[in-house]
Amino acid sequence: MFKAEELKKRTKLFAIRIVRLFRTLPKTEEGRVIGKQLLRSGTSVAANYRAVCRARSKAEFIAKMGIVVEEIDKTVFWLEMLIDTEIINESLLKDLLKEANELLAIFAASQRTSKQ
Description:
The protein is an all-alpha fold. The chain has one domain (4-115): de novo design (two linked rop proteins). It contains four helices and no strands. It starts with a helix and ends with a helix.
């Protein structure tokens, strides 16, 4: 299992990368719409994971971790949309999408483990 502090840092760095990507998106209508969705979900992963770390009970942990899983899954979706709609070249998002999928796997596994 990953340590909480390591994941706090990792999700914060991920959020920073999302903000930087947002700044580079084209100023078209679709770029703005998808970009804002990506910005919301991608940055909320870090904020909500911090809330997970402050959970006062197992039930609260599970509920808050569910939010993190939803937000990182949405982030993966919006990154895929940027690629599939050819707003951003896939090669430019490859590493960020890989990190998003890794975080999704980590948090989904943590959520499953905590439910048992």
